[in-house]
């Protein structure tokens, strides 16, 4: 499994698309956070990163699918998955190796944003006047959110040979999971279904973690979400003769 993980990670790191995607994510988040008047922290006047953590999930909807879209789609298109499947590896080992390689790249994209936190700490009056617990919870939530979107991206890549289609399907699934259930909850407001759709909403659990409270229910939700789509990926690749 480690050999496949290392192969997949180095393949991603050698891909120009990965660097372009991460670069665009950092550029857009930086511009929105510091330069655009409507979202700039300098214009807002408070030492907090709520603006970044509100915008990052929508950027992740495009960043993560761009990273995961080649996972299985490219292997199937080029016929190299046959060689990979012939090795003494289970389907789960292959899936998890590819998943964790994508997740590491998501982590690489998040690490440079820590400079935003450092900058806010230095700019705050008095210096360091920032809710560190909320920031920590938000970063953990972003990593879990990236993991959730990566699982949908891996699944989308396993059902098609076309990377563009895999990207589009992953973006759609990520959007529905993050915003779609919120919209349904508003439609069925004051009803039993409202609570059901809010529980299914990724956004609801991410916002809960962003308050700095690590609730085990949120952790269980994200892990269940990830396992659900990785399990669907197992069915997709296991039920097909390559």
UniProtKB/TrEMBL annotation:
It is found in: Cell membrane. It is a multi-pass membrane protein. The chain crosses the membrane at residues 12-35, 55-73, 94-118, 138-157, 164-181, 219-237. Residues 51-180 form the ABC-2 type transporter transmembrane domain. Keywords: Cell membrane, Membrane, Transmembrane, Transmembrane helix. PANTHER family: MEMBRANE COMPONENT OF ABC TRANSPORTER YHHJ-RELATED (PTHR30294), MULTIDRUG ABC TRANSPORTER PERMEASE YBHS-RELATED (PTHR30294:SF29). This is ABC-2 type transport system permease protein.
